[in-house]
Amino acid sequence: MEITPRAGAANASVSVDMTGNPSASVNGMSKEKAMRDGGSAAVAIGTERATEAPVVSGKNYIYAIVEGGEPMIYEALGLEGKDVYTITEGRLAAVVSGLTGFKIRPERANLRAHQAVLKRLMAVTTPLPMAFGTVAASPEAIHKILIRNRRAFEEQFARVAGKVEMGLRVTWDVPNIFEYFVNTHTELRLARDRLVGARHEFTQEEKIELGRMFDRLLNEDRENHTARVERVLAPLCSEFKANPCRNEQEVINLACLVKRDSQEAFSTGVFAAAQLFDNHFSFDYSGPWAPHNFVEIDLEQ
User: Fold this and answer.
1) How far is it, in rounded angstroms, from Cα 81 to Cα 97?
2) Is the pLDDT of residue 194 over 60?
3) Which residues pair with 283 in a beta bridge?
4) Predicted structure pTM score
5) CA nearest 254: which of 169, 178, 128, 152?
6) What angle do CA 173, 179, 180 make, to 5 degrees?
7) How many Å apart are CA 193 and CA 187, to the nearest integer?
8) Separation of alpha carbons 168 and 149, rounded Å
């Protein structure tokens, strides 16, 4: 099997998106992929300093919620090259920047800036990442968000504190997934051979029936393989979240919540899990990311 480690910043869609469809494409690229690429691209990281931030009146873009502390500012790190700063309410703070544009589009530069801020935060804390495009009408509105959602934020911090998200994707490394299943599943091979042996063109009904059998076997194998991997990684992860596979070649698309000090052990666990599979499988793990898949907040504004 092939095992590929990758590094970067947050990679999954998050819980609140004020701008529309989270799967919108960016110049032919999915938003998720663009955000992943943005996290690993060369980004000029702003200077961090503890100070009273010059809060911008009007609209503010929200990157994340963090546990409150000294006010911080990251110079020229945010969208539109704006300073990023915190607005604090009690024990919570929103990480924001001023916004001059009417609408934030999911373009590569904006996605990259969003992820650069999360990456910087991940170096010092575990943030609750907000969805790309989350905007508050004013600093006063942000204070209201922090007050009204205080309990939900605190519950989420208790869930992810001291942890990071790691991603694991497993794919079938074969040239033709259907032919691979024909060769590895007797039931499918016999069904296909019966139709081929009849020496007539497949009817639409026959194609549909064969396709249903293939889909059933595909999903059964995915479930079995996911269970095998999770058994190996369970002692190293606080939680799992299985995300939908993006294409027929993908076996597993798994988000794992891991303690910060267990990242090396997680990598070792991935290698151990991979030993259970033959060379028809490719393992690709990534992280650490902000815990997008494990933050579940329906913002009350």
Assistant:
1) 9
2) yes
3) 3, 170
4) 0.78
5) 169
6) 40
7) 10
8) 31
64's CB contacts (< 8 A; 6+ apart) are 94, 95, 117, 118, 121, 127, 128, 129, 130, 290
- Token pair of 231 as six digits: 């058994």
Phi, psi of 285 (to 5 degrees): -115, 155
| Alpha carbon 33 to its chain's center | 9
CB-based contacts of 144, cutoff 8 Å, min separation 6: 301
User: Do 20 and 287 contact (CB within 8 A), yes or no?
Assistant: no
Q: In what order do the strands lie in the sheet with 163-172?
A: 2-6, 281-289, 163-172, 250-259, 239-242
- Encode pLDDT of 177-189 as tens digits: 999 999 999 999 9
So where are the chain's domains?
Answer: 11-161
What tokens does 197 get? 């042996």
**CA–CA dist 204, 40 (Å, integer):** 46
Phi, psi dihedrals of residue 253, rounded to the nearest 5°: -135, 90
64 and 129 Cβ atoms separated by less than 8 Å? yes
What is the per-residue pLDDT for 300?
A: 73
